[in-house]
Design goal:
InterPro entries: P-loop_NTPase, T2SS/T4SS_dom, T4SS_GSP_E_ATPase. Pfam families: T2SSE. GO terms for molecular function: ATP hydrolysis activity. The chain has three domains: 1-30 and 60-149, no CATH class; 155-247, Beta-Lactamase, CATH 3.30.450.370; 253-339 and 348-519, P-loop containing nucleotide triphosphate hydrolases (Rossmann fold, 3-Layer(aba) Sandwich), CATH 3.40.50. It is of the alpha/beta class. It has helices spanning 19-27, 78-95, 103-125, 134-149, 155-158, 192-205, 253-258, 264-275, 290-298, 354-362, 379-387, 405-415, 420-430, 495-501, 516-519, and strands at 163-169, 172-177, 183-185, 219-223, 229-233, 240-244, 280-284, 306-311, 330-335, 343-344, 347-348, 368-374, 394-398, 433-441, 450-464, 470-480, 483-488. It contains 15 helices and 17 strands. α3 (103-125) packs across α4 (134-149). The protein starts with 18 loop residues before the first helix and ends in an 18-residue tail after the last helix.
């Protein structure tokens, strides 16, 4: 048996094992590495030496990408994790061949099998290598379990604090954070094929068996087991994957106020709008926090109502209990389904879009409809549901600039086949309030964080105005160049409904929203205490 003190090491660590070494450990027969010959002290210069073969990541230990590049250093190459995963998967299938176990019990069994397999592997590994520490064994076991049930090789990135986006371009990943600069990881996969296999395995784990990244379906989207949203494509120059992590699944308006997205006036105003059954549209640029705000507004819907959510990928989670423990409305969460790539007539086989789900959803007699994001022709049934009795419905929409909101709505309606004039009338009849979110970076003012905030709130009147377009009034808008956040500007025409239909029993016994809260806080209470006078004080 080789002396462990004479084994080569890389950067102070044991060199990663190849597939032959792994197979030997699993079968009890360790394949020994050939030790490099020490250079001869009298050897001539290597100028005339024959050209060496280009090292391969599979044959040259120094060329094998280390997991040390990822958070949570592992002492082995990912081949070890994949092989252990395959071994545990076989054992798990043998113990529960019909998959009759509850998922929680199956995962608990998998954890137990992983612990045993890693311990056995580590004992054989120690026969010819420096023994692993308990911490290293636990890290390997976690990686194996993650490979089976979580994000695999990318999970350590997703587990980092304040991660918002992981963008994979071929073998390289760029990580965007809430509160620190972008980070680049040079290698998160050994090949493009491995990355594609990861995408398809994640799709299966998420219950989206119909979604796969193949030549016939070169674009795919789904959510991961932890709720992160994945979009992947083979149409780019290299296979690419973008993962949007949902850090804030249980947030409400109170948390958004604490983080500076809204101030107390906006918090109470938007809460009153939800309780008074205003139709709300949350808009903004990509990454502005639209889904987080919509989720927070959904948490304000009274428990005695019935709610339907329609999403292309599950992100709102309004059908799950709130972190506060407060009961919510009866909620039916619908999720779209992608095609398997086949075409039947003029429709993709198996595809179910948000537009397709509207007819079924409305038969649930829901008091409100919430659409995660309106991107296309679903805008028409959404607006029709709002205008035909679905008071209190809400959705998000991508809009780059506040002044382009109506134009964007009209554009989507005309793309769905509506005439411009008809689109104007439908928008005026459907939408009551539009909330615009913005964001910026300011190292001095906001502590170096990505600061998301409401910059505008509009009232859309139910009549068309000049040029045949819906009339719009600014309720909140920026105070000026030095204050981009929303402050009160004009009293909404529906203020009476807010005063009569909203309830704030938790706010010092205040019975309802009161218009004096707007007029007594000219700066919107961004920088000072909230003044609450009048009958509601």
């Amino acid at each position: 048996m080789a002396d462990s003190h004479h084994n080569p090491r890389i950067n102070g660590h044991q060199p990663p094992l190849g597939r032959e070494d792994i197979a030997g450990l699993l079968t009890g027969h360790l394949t020994q590495r050939r030790q490099p010959e020490p250079p001869s002290p009298t050897a001539p210069p290597a100028l005339a030496a024959p050209a060496a073969a280009v090292p391969s990541a599979r044959t040259d230990p120094a060329a094998v990408p280390r997991l040390a590049e990822l958070p949570g250093e592992l002492p082995v190459d990912w081949d070890v994790i994949e092989t252990l995963q395959g071994e545990v998967s076989k054992q798990l299938a043998a113990r529960d061949p019909q998959r009759l176990m509850e998922e929680a019990d199956r995962r608990a069994l998998a954890r137990s099998l992983v612990t045993t397999a890693v311990a056995d592997w580590a004992a054989k590994y120690a026969q010819a290598h420096v023994p692993l520490t308990e911490t290293q064994e636990q890290a390997i076991g976690t990686a194996v379990f993650n490979s089976m049930y979580r994000g695999g090789r990318l999970q350590s990135l997703l587990d980092e604090d304040s991660v918002e986006d992981v963008m994979v371009d071929g073998l390289r990943a760029h990580v965007e954070y809430l509160d620190r600069p972008r980070r680049t990881i040079e290698r998160v996969a050994d090949s493009h094929e491995e990355l594609i296999s990861w995408v398809n395995r994640m799709a299966r784990l998420s219950g989206h068996g119909e979604r796969g990244l193949t030549q016939s379906t070169p674009m795919v989207g789904f959510r991961m087991p932890d709720g992160s949203r994945v979009t992947a494509s083979m149409l780019t120059s290299r296979p690419s994957v973008v993962i949007r992590k949902h850090r804030l699944r249980d947030t409400g308006l109170e948390e958004l106020r604490m983080w500076g997205t809204v101030n107390p006036i906006l918090q109470y105003f938007l809460r009153a709008c939800v309780q008074a059954r205003m139709n709300l549209l949350v808009v903004g640029d990509m990454g502005a926090g639209k889904t987080s705000l919509l989720r927070a507004l959904g948490r304000e819907i009274p428990a005695d109502e019935r709610l339907v959510t329609l999403e292309s990928d599950r992100e709102l989670y309004l059908d799950e209990p709130a972190a506060s423990g407060q009961p919510g409305p009866i909620t039916y969460a619908f999720e779209a389904r992608q095609s398997n790539g086949e075409i039947l007539g003029d429709k993709k086989a198996g595809e179910v879009t948000i537009s397709d789900m509207f007819a079924t959803a409305l038969r649930y007699n829901a008091t409100r409809v919430v659409v995660g994001e309106v991107r296309s022709t679903e805008i028409v049934p959404m607006l029709q549901a709002m205008s035909a009795g679905g008071s209190g419905s809400m959705c998000t929409m991508h809009v780059r600039r506040p002044h382009a909101i109506i134009s964007r709505l009209v554009q989507l309606c005309t793309e769905a086949g509506m005439a411009t004039e008809a689109a104007h009338h439908l928008i005026a009849a459907a939408v009551d309030v539009v909330v615009y979110l913005a964001y910026d970076w300011d190292d001095v003012k906001y502590g170096g964080r990505k600061h998301r905030y409401v910059s505008h709130v509009y009232e859309v009147h139910d009549v068309v105005g000049e040029g045949g377009r819906p009339s719009v009034t600014e309720i909140f808008a920026p105070a000026g160049p030095q204050e981009p956040r929303a402050v009160f500007k004009n009293m909404p025409s529906f203020i009476g409904e807010l005063e009569n239909k909203s309830r704030f029993p938790d706010l010092d016994g205040a019975p309802s929203f009161h218009r004096a809260w707007l007029t007594d806080n000219p700066l919107g209470a961004w920088g000072g205490p909230l003044q609450r006078k009048g009958p509601a004080a």
